[in-house]
UniProtKB/TrEMBL annotation:
It is an enzyme of class 2 (transferase). Belongs to the UDP-glycosyltransferase family. It comes from Trifolium subterraneum (Subterranean clover). One of its GO terms (molecular function) is UDP-glucosyltransferase activity. This is Glycosyltransferase. The lineage of its organism: Eukaryota, Viridiplantae, Streptophyta, Embryophyta, Tracheophyta. InterPro entries: UDP_glucos_trans, UDP_glycos_trans_CS. Keywords: Glycosyltransferase, Transferase. Pfam families: UDPGT. Its EC number is 2.4.1.-.
Length: 453
C-alpha cells in the first residue's frame, strides 16, 4: 500500500445494536472494512466491548469506543448490557429502554470526533438525523435478506393482515404463505424501513447470488434505495468463536414433540436445547416433561448428542458428518448453513423468519418445511400451536432418507455453499461490492472537501 492510499483511508464508525444476532454480523463486516485498510471504530458498551475484544482482531485499523450503559437509570444490575442476557421479559424491556438512552453519549462522541461515514443498526433510527446534521453519509444495517425486505414491503403495501393463506403480490416469484405476520410487527418494521430508505444504502449480510439479481433489482426499483451485499459475514472470521443465536424459543411441550420426532426418524442428531436458568440439576420428573422416559439411555452416546445452552454452531455446520440443519430461519443461522453447504429443515417462529423460509424452500430449493404456521410477535414464551412429532419426523425423513427430492436439495445446497465462498473471495461478488462501496464513499468525501465555504 502506498502513501496515497494511506492518506485516503476512510474514518468509519459502526454502531451495532446490543443483541448478538445484530452485533456479530455487523462487527464482522466492520472487520472486513478494516482488512481493506480503512480506519474503523466500533461504538458499544463496556461489557459488549469485552466480549468483542476477545473475538475480533483489534489493530491500528480497528478499535473499540465505549459509552456507559445506563444500568442504574433503568434498574438493571451491572453487566446486563445485551438482550441475550435478559432472564425474563421485564429485564428485556429494561435493556431495550437502556439502548434508547445511549443516544446522547453516542451523539456527543460523534459530534466531537466526526467520521467520514456512519454504519448503524436500523434499531437506532436517530442516526439518520445525526448524519444529516454532520453532512456525512450513513449506511443502514438490519440483518435481513433483501428478499425478506421485498416481501415485507409488499405485505405492508397490500395490507395483508387477516388471510391465513395467500400469495405475496408483485414479487418475481409466486410465494405462497400459510401464516400472517402480526399487524404490529409489520407496522413497526415498516416505520423502521422508511428510515432505512432515507440512508445512503443498506449493508446486507448476504451474497448477491442467494438473494438473486431479480430481488436486488426489485428492491432498488420499488424503494429507490441501494443495497450492498457484503457477506456472508460468517466467512469473514476464521475462528470457531462464532455465537449461535440464543433465546428460549421452545418450551417443554414443544421440546417433547421434537424429541419424539427426531427419535422416531431413526437418524443421528446433535440437538441444541435452551439452557434452563436455575435448573442445571433438574430432577428426573422435571426432565420427563420435555424428554420421553428412557430417551437419553436409548440415544445419547449411541446416535445422539444433546447440548444445553450455547453451541459452536458454525463449527458444527462445517463438519462433514452434518447432513441437515433444523433451524428457526434467523438470518444469521440461515446464511451460516448456506455457507457450509448444509440443507435445512425450516421452522420459523417470529420476525422475518417466515419470509426467510420461503427463500430457502420455494425459491432456492435448499430446504424443506416442518409446517410451522404460528407467527409470534416474540421469539420466546408459550406457543398456542405445537408442531406435532409426525410433522417433525416426516420433515427429517424427507431430507435425510434419500430419494430424488433430497438429492436435488443437497445438490442445490452444495452449489450455494460454493457460491458463498466464491463471493467472499478476492474477485467475488461481495469482495467487488466492498471495493466499489469504499470507492464511492471516498468520492463523496473528496467532493465534500472541494466544496467552498
Amino acid at each position: 500500500m502506498n502513501m496515497e492510499d494511506e492518506e485516503k483511508a476512510l474514518k468509519i464508525y459502526f454502531i451495532p445494536y446490543l443483541a448478538p444476532g445484530h452485533m456479530i454480523p455487523l462487527c464482522d463486516i466492520a472487520t472486513l472494512f478494516a482488512s481493506r485498510h480503512q480506519n474503523v471504530t466500533i461504538i458499544t458498551t463496556p461489557c459488549n466491548a469485552q466480549i468483542l475484544g476477545r473475538s475480533i482482531p483489534l489493530n491500528q485499523n480497528l478499535c473499540l469506543q465505549t459509552v456507559p450503559f445506563p444500568s442504574q437509570e433503568v434498574g438493571l444490575p451491572d453487566g446486563m448490557e445485551s438482550l441475550s442476557a435478559a432472564t425474563n421479559p421485564d429485564n428485556l424491556v429494561k435493556i431495550y429502554q437502556g439502548t434508547t438512552l445511549l443516544r446522547p453519549p453516542i451523539e456527543h462522541f460523534i459530534e466531537q470526533n466526526p467520521p467520514d461515514c456512519i454504519v448503524a443498526d436500523f434499531l437506532f433510527p436517530w442516526v439518520d438525523e445525526l448524519a444529516n446534521k454532520l453532512q456525512i453519509p450513513r449506511l443502514a444495517f438490519n440483518g435481513f435478506s433483501i428478499f425478506a425486505i421485498c416481501a415485507m414491503e409488499s405485505v405492508k403495501a397490500n395490507s395483508i393482515y387477516e388471510s391465513s393463506s395467500y400469495v405475496i403480490p408483485d414479487l418475481p416469484h409466486s410465494i405462497a404463505m400459510t401464516a400472517t405476520p402480526p399487524k404490529e410487527m409489520t407496522e413497526l418494521l415498516g416505520e423502521l424501513l422508511e428510515t432505512v430508505f432515507k440512508s445512503n444504502g443498506i449493508i446486507v449480510n448476504n451474497f448477491a447470488e442467494l438473494d438473486g439479481e431479480e430481488y436486488i433489482e426489485h428492491y432498488e426499483k420499488t424503494t429507490g434505495h441501494k443495497a450492498w451485499h457484503l457477506g456472508p459475514a460468517s466467512l469473514i472470521r476464521r475462528t470457531i468463536q462464532e455465537k449461535a443465536e440464543r433465546g428460549e424459543q421452545s418450551v417443554d411441550k414443544q421440546l417433547y414433540e421434537i424429541s419424539c420426532g427426531i427419535e422416531n426418524s431413526g437418524h443421528e442428531f446433535v440437538w441444541v436445547v435452551p439452557e434452563k436458568k436455575g435448573k442445571e440439576n433438574e430432577t428426573g420428573e422435571d426432565k420427563e416433561k420435555w424428554l420421553p422416559k428412557g430417551f437419553e439411555e436409548r440415544n445419547i452416546g449411541k446416535k445422539g448428542l444433546i447440548i444445553r445452552g450455547w453451541a459452536p454452531q458454525v463449527m458444527i455446520l462445517g463438519h462433514r458428518a452434518v447432513g441437515g440443519f433444523m433451524t428457526h430461519c434467523g438470518w444469521n443461522s440461515t446464511v451460516e448453513a448456506v455457507s457450509a453447504g448444509v440443507p435445512m429443515i425450516t421452522w420459523p417462529v417470529h420476525g422475518e423468519q417466515f419470509y426467510n423460509e420461503k427463500l430457502i424452500t420455494q425459491v432456492r430449493g435448499i430446504g424443506v418445511e416442518v409446517g410451522a404456521a404460528e407467527w409470534s410477535i416474540m421469539g420466546f414464551g408459550e406457543r398456542e400451536e405445537v408442531v406435532g412429532r409426525e410433522c417433525i419426523e416426516k420433515a427429517v425423513r424427507r431430507l435425510m432418507d434419500g430419494g430424488d427430492e433430497a438429492e436435488e436439495i443437497r445438490r442445490n445446497a452444495r452449489e450455494f455453499g460454493d457460491k458463498a465462498k466464491l463471493a467472499a473471495q478476492e474477485g467475488g461478488s461481495s469482495y467487488k461490492n466492498l471495493t466499489t462501496l469504499i470507492d464511492d464513499l471516498k468520492r463523496f468525501t473528496d467532493r465534500k472537501l472541494l466544496v467552498p465555504e
